Amino acid sequence: MTVIMLGQNFKYETEAVLKLFYPVRAFDFVFVGDGEPAPKPDGDLIILSRKIYSGYADLTAEAFIGGKNLTDHTLVKLESDDYEHLCELGLCRALFDCLKELTGISPEWGMLTGVRPVKLVSGLMKKGLSEEEIYSHMQGRLGVSREKIGLAIKTAKNQEQALKALPKNGVSLYVSIPFCPSRCAYCSFVSQTVASFLKLIPEYVERLCDEIALTADIVRGLGLRLDTVYFGGGTPTSLSAGELERIMSVISERFDLSGLREYTVEAGRPDTVTEEKLSAIKRGGADRVSVNPQTLNQSVLDAIGRKHTVAQFFEAYDLAKKAGFGAINVDLIAGLPTDTLESFEAGLSEIIRLSPENITVHALSIKRSADLMQSGGELDHELAAKMISYSGSALGAAGYEPYYLYRQKNQLGNQENVGWERGGSLGIYNINMMEEVQTVLAVGAGGSTKIVADEKNIRRLYNPKYPLEYLRRYDTTVAVRKREAERLLREIRGRENE
Ligand code: SF4
Asked: What is the pTM for the complete model shown?
């Protein structure tokens, strides 16, 4: 589809709106300068223009799609405060309204394309807006449905307690274990399968321990406190019990864990979970684990190339329960290929029957690099939306509350991922991450350190993505970035103490 851009350059924002309606189409953006003639290509066409008339900018979207055409526009005063932002918003809204009418699709999150809608709601709450004002702002200005606004408000309110208890000088530690026993077909994560990288693991574990020790020195030296620890992946339980023990013992020896509010290890794939590993994790200090089947339908598990059985999930869950963790999280995905509404509902009911402290329901995110996309798998946006809507009512009825929510690019049906909890077991690390209220020091390949000075001042430092690259560049990149993180944190501490 050709998109002609006249008098403005809001490509990033308008492309995000286009993708809400055409998630897998490619767009050819053509920029036309003042006075230049606009090309007249064949096929579907969108013209996005900004023209200036007596004190106003006229932002117009014209869509010529499938033999139908529609125009929408809005005006912005030239002397408005925040003029560029209002123009961008106005053009996106005109385009959104045109496409909504032409396609008959009503994205429930409206024009919101960011990953953190709850952060937007918390921001509005902090400014003193009432719930009705938040509804009116998000519905009127951004086209978000009342159901999604309600969900975001509820989530923001449920987070309040955890955010209030945020310790001063607290930081979180993220430990990246980018290995998996095999690669699932919907996954675009850069994880390495254990079979092909088995030889790297011992060296990886040692380097990771070095980086953890270095990070602990920085935290101690700056008088910071560890608030949460999170092992993610990949699949952390791809490692052996001994390897997990080794990493966790470096954490408990090097850090002061007396103020720790949460320690999570994502066990992830049930086929990697053993009694021995769970007891090593428990001894190592973790009180929260995740065991993730994604679906309880065996034929769907087979279709997505997730090489474990439904029975293995129940066994792993049972082991985690017997090991006595304070909280267990279970992940499910809505919109998996070949899944049906009935099978999704049955799977969710089974999980609710187990009554884990946390259930996280994701809407499938379509990544071009996933094997599933390469093989042209069928995806059903409407069905995913129905599953997500069902999960909200079923979990609500079972006494679960939404406590964190985020969106990814290209999620089926333009839906979201929601973490649900019961009995006050909120996953604190998840909230801190999504609200961007705390520094996260990440270690390991693919780790992304986030230094939070305040909500508008966040710096990210990335470790090399792949384990081999991580090992080779440990001295030249990883250790150097840690020192950079230390420098930034020292500056922030200096400012706080002024
Ligand atoms: S277990 Fe998770 S990270 Fe590993 S391949 Fe499957 S989806 Fe990707």
From this structure: 0.89
